Amino acid sequence: MFDDKFRSFFKFFWLLPLIAAPGLILLGYYEAHQEHLVSFQGNTYSHPRGIHLTGKKLSISANQQVCLTKKFAAPGSLRVVALASAPGSGNTWTRHLLESASGIYTGSIYKDKKLYRAGFYGEYEDYVAGTVLVVKCHRFKAENSEKFETAIVLVRNPYKAMISEYNRILTGKNHTAVANPSDFSGEEWTFFVRQMGDKWFGIIDKWLAKDPNIHVVFYENLLKDKRTELEKMLEFLNIDIDPARLDCTIANQEGSFHRKSTNEFDPFTDELKTYLDEKIRRAQDLLTAFRKPLLPEEYFAKDFR
């Protein structure tokens, strides 16, 4: 009888790890998620212990580290706001700046593994959960747009945006690599420009139609005056501005996904320039009608932009 009880005990003993494992996994996930939360009260937020981003190794002083910790917001505490732009407009870099300046992760509709591994931990977050600051998107679809309350529309000179995006495509969707200028020609390039021209104008047109109160920011202005443009975006998002985080953000402005400028070349035929210039003119008319900031003068330059 003793042997039977002994055997029964050991049978049960070996089952314990199988029973306990799922509970431990769930507990670990819960604690990990809680580690990223930031609680909101009105327009203010408190910062629990932070998690440092992985990516480029930075050599910085102590006062330049304050912007390296980011959190998820408490579920439902933030509006669902799109960071909408045509591809190649600096969306990922703008996310880096916003995350650093606010301390809150940004999200995306794309679930990009490369970006997640580089520290954009909101990439796989449920973007309608109200836990991320803004949500990256490059297209406007009726079924998706209804999930957003409003948007920050990021606009870049379409000539530069198209070269940037075609670089990314030709280099295997690498966010920082540069392709050979000779590849920017032929039927594929022409088709790409016409397709992207429609998308560039459509982002402005459709978001203004959905919500006339969207915030419009120009990539060129962000390059020139990061502090002012970031302050405007944070105010639009109802986030209190932390001067120390802004200083730190500007000191560490590049991030891991900002393609370096290359020697300019002009791959646009006269026909493509006529097509794009018409899109630019129509966009300016829309911005004027909705009393939004107007396109920078360089968009209308006669020589190559």
From TrEMBL:
GO function term, MF aspect, one: sulfotransferase activity
InterPro entries: P-loop_NTPase (IPR027417), Sialate-O-sulfotransferase (IPR051589), Sulfotransferase_dom (IPR000863)
Domain Sulfotransferase: 151-252
Keyword Membrane on entry: yes
Keyword tags: Membrane, Transmembrane, Transmembrane helix
Residue spans crossing the bilayer: 12-30
Keyword Coiled coil: no
Any single Pfam family the record assigns to this protein: Sulfotransfer_1
Protein family (similarity comment): Belongs to the WSCD family.
Annotated protein name in UniProt: WSC domain-containing protein 1
Species this chain originates from: Holothuria leucospilota (Black long sea cucumber)
